[in-house]
Design a protein that fits this description.
Blueprint lengths: L20 E2 L11 E15 L6 E12 L30 E7 L10 H9 L3 E5 L15 H4 L2 H16 L7 E11 L1 H9 L6 H7 L8 H9 L5 H8 L13 E4 L19 E6 L11 H7 L4 E5 L12 H24 L1
Parallel strand pairs: 1-9, 4-5, 4-6, 6-7, 7-8, 8-9
Antiparallel strand pairs: 2-3, 3-5
């Protein structure tokens, strides 16, 4: 295994010989719905947490369209508590809604994707951001965390959460099974490409991965040795090159996808759903060359947008107002993409 981390210094957003389609940026659409927030404590009992003390936790934040009569939106918190009264759609609601699963970036949390989840819900789409990393205790207090290093587990996370949501007594009845998508930022962008069919090639990754920064070298060495002492990590490593394609996913939106150096042209050939890839032209962490452009060139029919700015991987010098404006534009692009594929 080689270094496979996409480090995010700020809250995370989120090549076939086929030429990527250049796509224009649409005009922003006004919000059309009020938005509610709900929380779920899901888990995957077929996979262990890293401490091997219980199932893999999959805490999830949901943003959903609500009416004036629905209980007001609950405030986002630093963790996902158990569901509370009033956090779910009204019992009488029968309207079927599209669903978009959201994958956060490396070292980030589900709550950091509020900018996208809220914007999608305002367009009438249920958005569900999955907590890939769990707590520090669940992550062996390792920096970088095992979940991010064993990044293929993230794709499985999305599929398991989708299973749970379809079985959920509140949300299952209003999710339209024919309109399900996925969106992610950075390592989350790579994650959603994997649920669309991308397959990692470890040998290719080892040959092409950039040199490990000196400050990360000790942590990376420990993680490379983890499968020798941790059964959860040993079993996880055996799953690295599997396909995690979920045929229920009808389209994916990837903002600044990372780890392009781990995916061959052949490994991207199984993607057959609409894909839109967006990146900032001066992204300081996952630069377009070798990442977003590599994916766009090799994913058949991918639409590619390169916007001015950093777009999620923000350097410390970028003002908050500029960050917000950049993310608002990305949310508009994502919302228009999903409206288009859900309408077709």
């Amino acid at each position: 295994m080689a270094w496979s981390l996409a480090l995010s210094p700020a809250p995370a957003l989120g090549t076939s010989t086929h030429q990527p389609q250049e796509a224009s940026v649409p005009n922003p659409m006004p919000a059309t719905s009020l938005v509610g927030t709900a929380y779920r404590d899901f888990a995957d009992r077929e996979r262990s947490n890293w401490l091997q003390t219980g199932p893999r936790p999959l805490r999830t934040i949901l943003w959903y369209p609500r009416t004036e009569e629905t209980t007001p939106e609950t405030e986002n918190t630093t963790s996902c508590p158990k569901p509370r009264t009033g956090d779910t759609p009204p019992a009488g609601s029968t309207d079927k809604r599209p669903l978009v699963l959201i994958s956060h970036g490396s070292g980030s949390r589900a709550r950091d994707m509020d900018w996208l989840g809220h914007a999608l819900a305002a367009r009438g789409i249920i958005a569900a951001a999955v907590e890939h990393n769990g707590s520090e205790e669940e992550e062996l207090r390792s920096k970088p965390t095992p979940s991010d290093h064993f990044s293929w587990e993230r794709a499985r996370d999305l599929s398991v959460v989708l299973d749970r949501l379809l079985d959920d007594p509140e949300f299952g009845r209003i999710i339209d099974c024919e309109r399900i998508g996925a969106a992610g930022f950075s390592l989350g962008g790579t994650t959603v490409l994997r649920v669309a069919g991308a397959r990692l090639d470890l040998a290719y990754l080892q040959r092409n991965a950039p040199a490990v920064p000196a400050f990360l070298a000790p942590a990376i060495k420990r993680l490379l040795q983890l499968p020798q002492v941790n059964d959860a990590a040993r079993l996880s490593q055996q799953r690295a090159e599997q396909s995690y394609r979920d045929q229920r996913i009808r389209g994916v939106f990837a903002l600044a996808p990372a780890m392009g150096f781990g995916f061959t042209k052949e490994g991207l050939s199984d993607i057959g759903v609409p894909v839109e890839i967006v990146v900032g032209d001066i992204d300081p962490v996952a630069p377009p060359a070798g990442n977003a452009r590599h994916f766009a060139r090799n994913v058949r029919g991918a639409r590619y947008i390169e916007l001015p700015g950093e777009r999620g991987h923000f350097s410390p010098a970028t003002p908050e107002r500029e960050r917000a404006a950049e993310l608002e534009e990305v949310a508009t692009v994502a919302g228009t993409f999903f409206e288009g594929i859900f309408r077709d």
